[in-house]
Design goal:
The protein is mostly helical. Helix content is 75%, strand content 0%. The longest helix has 26 residues, at 55-80.
Amino acid sequence: MKLLFLFLLLFSTPCLGQSCLDPIKIPQDKLLHTGGCYIISATTASIVYNITEDHKKAFIYGVLSAVVVGGIKEIHDIKHGDSNWADMGANVIGGTLGALVVTVRF
């Protein structure tokens, strides 16, 4: 009975997973900011956790390291590139995700 219900549930409705009409497009620059800060944050959080064995400190130091490095890069971009707040938002998202992945217990 469960198998029949599962079969009906899966095949009675149209599957639209890959046929989005207007997919979300994230600029490559934001993805690079997110990825770079993810790596910085995850590395820092891992090092801090190995030294202190404290998840809270590892998370805080991981996020702060990514935000500080990303902020320094944005300050540099004021005179030498294109600085905007969306880049800093991508830095925060990447830093938070990187520290979260390292410090969450499974």
